[in-house]
Amino acid sequence: MNNYLQLTNEIVMKLAPESSSFWYEHASEETLLAERHVEIGARARAQLVVIVDRDSDLINFQRDYSLGEESSLEIYYLFLGVKPQHWQLAHTIGKRASITSHSLFIGQGASNLRVVSDYNFTGQGSYGRVRVESMLFAESQLRYDANINVFPSAQQSDTRVDMRLRLDGPKTRGQVIPSLNIAANDVKAGHSASTFQLSKEDLFYLRSRGLSPVAVQRLLALALGRNFVRGLKNQDMADTILALITKSL
Fold first, then answer.
1. 11-33 per-position pLDDT tens digit
2. Number of domains observed in the structure of the chain
């Protein structure tokens, strides 16, 4: 992708202070590492896209991100119908640093994903917005825990997590669980979570408009995908993500 640096076999990545970069990690058998550590230097700016759309012999994965003072990270996680995997994500946000995290999971077949994502706000004036969107088809399963942890040193921080789960079918199983763990007394923090299914009336209406069940799935998934890529600074990357979503359906 133009202007994006692909991460391959680098276990540790460091972004120099006061610099900026666009990275992406598209997991494959050759480049899907069990762990990776990313350090964002003070006052640096980064945008990172993580795409997981292929199965692997590995089951457990870990990603750690550390944000230095006044740095910012905008991160996009895309999970598309993979075999059982467990992802442990840790984000440490320093003084006056900010993180915006977008996650999208579209489950197909018997895919099964478990994610535990920790957002550790350790610095004064730190900022975070976390959004998780998911849609499950067939017999897919998801459990996604998003934990906002505000340390005593993170006074005047501003954090929020919002999670939505859509179930399409009686055999899908999912949970999205936001958690606020606040150890500072001068903060802003909020969370929401919702789970819903399309009603029979909604499905009847869509099918009465000439849409097959597969077409309905594609319509709903692409609507989520377009919303997911809205903030990307590179149109080629956005187009690639939408093409991968379409291919997965």
1. 999 999 999 999 989 876 556 78
2. 1
